[in-house]
Write a structure and sequence with these properties.
ABC transporter substrate-binding protein; 16 strands; 6-stranded mixed beta sheet; 19 helices
Length: 522
């Protein structure tokens, strides 16, 4: 199991430096140039020629903020190979900086080394080359406004690669057993491409966009939040297409969760797929008198040492837990401005980091190490090492209890102040050459039939984005007939007093602040 220790380094039981297979792209690159792009976007690079030191000023902002001021490597912290993190140095093509959370070899694979040498021979470092390729501009391409029948005709015979988080077994099964057959019936071949992090897909798209590709390897992405905002800022998404989807008629056009994604206006750049609610989960056999507020959860943690922990940011679930604690110590979510500013950060976060440092000695393993991912926290809960876990996808709880993975007394912890809620979406990259078929798949995923299937607790248990008042009587009855879960309350109960996400601009500073002030601050 990976973990993040209090010095900020990741560890495993085995040395992973030789695991070259993990560096292979999940979809075979369609050319050696594409293979090189895949390699380069994962090594934000100190690869250099002998002229690298004169490009220090260009490399430094590239590494700090990404190409063109965009966070090209979201949710990745870079481990320097030298003591000064942001100082350029001459290094061999065989060396590079190791992004946190990735198992990658210390040598570029052979197929790419030839191309890399060619780049180096040109007299430019890889980092400077990419920084110099910051164009194209950030303007998002707008989809051609065609009749739906023409879009369906164009989609015939096309293959769509759907890149989505691969750690959700129920989600994988739903796509394989329900969405793929539906796409096949519509004349489209749908391929599910599992990724460890959505940022991997975003980085791939940005690399392809910088290269000017129009037939990239990613055609559809399960996305929301920071990854969507980062991509939109860089023009990574096709926009202006969702209004043409026939099944959008079944959604509420005024639903704020569907119009705003972590403070970023959706503006037709992604189609809604499911709603979600951040949820704390506990074992009632071990916690017979659970707290009812997040402040009470933190107090309970100190009163029960070793029985609680949370994933280390930038894990998605760990990040949202930190934001929920920010709302709690600020006196409520309404006291945290949704839009980020340095002044608000400086004013509000000292109390946040103080409180997280206070509870750290009472966490699992004394707070000396944190689960790297929500899956690792779930494993600790399933194994009885902690009494609580947390999730942004409570839909999976029913099946986890039914299979015996989770304790039979697993319950959802309802907090008086509510928790944060959002929606997840399907986005089409601006580099996809299969956008017509991708639109067909997104429309299928939004259909009452597919939304009903994914809402079944024994399938995926997701919360629908459809407005019941806009459905036919038969469809409304079908949703009403869904079996209730003995673990998860209905969405209207779970989302009581829910508050919206902060803007994506809060995420990075809070994650970095946690690492500096909590992880390294003890």
């Amino acid at each position: 199991m990976r973990h993040v220790d209090t010095e900020g380094y990741e560890g495993t039981a085995e040395d992973d430096d030789s695991e070259d297979s993990q560096f292979e792209p999940v979809v075979p690159a369609r050319s050696s140039a594409r293979r090189l792009l895949f390699d380069l976007h994962r090594i934000p690079s100190f690869l250099s020629s002998t002229r690298s030191t004169q490009h220090h000023d260009a490399l430094d902002p590239f590494l700090r903020e990404g190409i063109g001021g965009v966070a090209v490597f979201p949710n990745r912290r870079i481990r320097p190979i030298h003591p000064e993190p942001w100082t350029a140095r001459r290094v061999s093509v065989k060396q590079f900086v190791r992004p946190r959370g990735l198992s990658i070899p210390r040598r570029i694979p052979a197929r790419s080394r030839v191309a890399a040498r060619a780049l180096v021979a040109s007299g430019l470092s890889v980092g400077v080359l990419l920084a110099g390729c910051a164009a194209p501009g950030p303007e998002a391409p707008v989809a051609e406004n065609l009749p739906w029948s023409e879009i369906e005709e164009q989609a015939q015979g096309q293959t769509v690669s759907l890149w989505m988080y691969g750690g959700d077994e129920q989600g994988n099964s739903y796509v394989d057993e329900y969405l793929i057959p539906a796409a096949r019936a519509a004349g489209v071949t749908l391929r599910r491409v599992p990724v460890a992090s959505t940022s991997d897909a975003v980085n791939r798209i940005l690399s392809e966009r910088q290269a000017g590709l129009t037939d990239g390897d990613v055609d559809l992405v399960w996305v929301n939040g920071d990854n969507f905002g980062t991509g939109k800022q860089a023009g990574a998404w096709l926009c202006g297409w969702t209004a043409t989807l026939p099944n959008m008629q079944f959604t509420d056009p005024d639903d704020p969760l569907l119009n705003d994604d972590f403070g970023t206006p959706v503006e037709g750049c992604e189609a809604p797929w499911h709603k979600a609610q951040f949820t704390l989960v506990y074992n009632a056999a071990a916690v017979p008198d659970p707290p009812t507020t997040l402040a009470g959860v933190l107090d309970w943690t100190q009163a029960n040492p070793g029985r609680f922990t949370y994933p280390a940011p930038p894990d998605f679930t760990g990040s949202v837990f930190v934001r929920e604690v920010l709302a709690s110590v600020s006196g409520g979510a309404e006291n945290v401005p949704s839009q980020f500013s340095e002044a608000d950060y400086d004013r509000l976060t000292p109390a946040l980091f103080d409180r997280l440092r206070e509870i750290a000695p009472s966490l699992w393993r004394g707070g000396t190490t944190y689960p790297q991912t929500s899956s690792e926290l779930d494993a600790l809960y399933a194994g009885g090492q902690v009494d609580m876990t947390m999730t942004y996808g409570p839909a999976t709880l029913t099946e986890l209890v039914a299979k015996g993975t989770y304790p039979p007394q697993t319950k959802v912890l309802q907090l008086d102040e509510g928790t944060v809620g959002n929606a997840s979406f399907l986005a089409i990259p601006s580099t996809s050459g299969q956008s017509a078929a991708a639109r067909v798949v997104a429309n299928l995923a939004l259909s009452p039939e597919q939304q009903l299937a994914s809402a079944r607790p024994d399938v995926w248990g997701q919360f629908t984005v459809l407005d019941m008042e806009r459905l036919s009587p038969a469809d409304r009855e079908a949703f009403a007939a869904l079996p209730s879960s003995p673990v998860v309350p209905p969405y209207d109960v779970l989302s009581r007093n829910a508050h919206p996400e902060l803007s994506a601009q809060w995420v990075g500073p809070l994650d970095d602040g946690w690492r500096r002030n909590v992880l390294a601050g003890r």
